[in-house]
Amino acid sequence: MADVYIKVEHLNQLNGSLKQILVEFNDAATRTDKLQEMIDSPDGRTELRDKTHDFEGGWDDRRNALIEKLTGIQAAVESTCTGWQEFDADAAQQLKVNKNTGANLPTR
To answer: What is the pLDDT of residue 96?
Structure first.
């Protein structure tokens, strides 16, 4: 299997994008309510408003399932970013050489 290299910067961008998508999905129901209010009942007809209500009802269950899955993906991406950044900081700290350490290194 080939190695896959992903920049932490790209993972952080993905994490931010997933969070934005989750906000949009969570806010979608309130926007539908506003849309239905704006449609109202032109000429005393409610068919269009009823169609938006029917669509929202069907989309609501699917959206909730997507929110649940995207939340898991976003958490995994965020955890991967955090874990890698912590590992990188720890590795850098361990590789750091003190000023005094150089005096004890062997010479030729």
So the answer is: 81
